[in-house]
């Protein structure tokens, strides 16, 4: 990268997500502090300009003044039909994907250094006739990435990070989705991205077992013996500091986590309840393995809070913070 490219200001895209949810207002609340939190970083907000302005007004943000300051701009993408806070409408399902597509295309084209996504409603997109399982899977497909890894992280000097070997699968399908090759690839992605985007020279990765008590030496399942342990051995041969498999019910305690940079859990509800209990409202969802940087909030659309001014923007602020840090690290400082 040239010196000029390193010196250029960062530009982030923010998709405002489901128009009936809290995404538009959380974006406005978070960016109201942009000058103080992220001086010199520029933001392009993707969404319906009228919707964003009205939600900003509802939560007491002077959106016109914020735009006039020059650090924030809006890429207007019109709603299909007017949106009402708290009321889903499948007619706007494709509008939500249009926002995401525009952000992805801009990041792939070098216009944006990172994208931050507000929550969307999967059911609305599916009701609009588009098969959709989640941001993570859609980003992988749109960027032609063979394997991505979902990782959630808290904040602080030594944040808790939890990555997932599988994501949005029925529990009955999880064992069949875990094999040696996929686990080695997942561990390699975590190691690579923690080095590049988080500045960790030698990340230490702890891995859970799949079964209770990590299989109890085969009495409660053989996945730990036949799949997980061999995968960890192969990853270690690549020079990755990876350890396990540990029983998930005892791994999440300070004696292990104080020296860990990331925990790899085998399925969604094995690792994320612990992470969300510890960090909810200030956590960040990150997609590792992509050619672009993507972060998001740790919560859903909160339809019951939309338009009320009661939604907490802490996770959105943390997601922007993380995206800025990752983009700076990826640039090399």
From TrEMBL:
Group of enzyme by EC: oxidoreductase
GO annotation terms (biological process): pyridoxal phosphate biosynthetic process; pyridoxine biosynthetic process
Cofactor(s) the protein needs: Zn(2+); Mg(2+); Co(2+)
Free-text cofactor note: Binds 1 divalent metal cation per subunit. Can use ions such as Zn(2+), Mg(2+) or Co(2+).
Binding site for substrate: 135-136, 276, 285, 294
GO cellular component terms listed in the entry, alphabetical order: cytoplasm
Enzyme Commission number(s) of this protein: 1.1.1.262
InterPro entries with a match to the protein in the record: PdxA, PdxA_fam
Entries under Pfam families matching the protein: PdxA
Transmembrane segments: none
Key words of the record: Cobalt, Cytoplasm, Magnesium, Metal-binding, NAD, NADP, Oxidoreductase, Pyridoxine biosynthesis, Zinc
Lineage: superkingdom: Bacteria
Coiled-coil residue spans: none
Catalytic activity: 4-(phosphooxy)-L-threonine + NAD(+) = 3-amino-2-oxopropyl phosphate + CO2 + NADH
Signal sequence range: none
Main localization, broad class: cytoplasm
Pathway(s) per entry: Cofactor biosynthesis; pyridoxine 5'-phosphate biosynthesis; pyridoxine 5'-phosphate from D-erythrose 4-phosphate: step 4/5
Binding site for a divalent metal cation: 168, 213, 268
HAMAP family registered for this protein in UniProt: PdxA
Name by which UniProt lists this protein: 4-hydroxythreonine-4-phosphate dehydrogenase
Source species of the chain: Trinickia soli
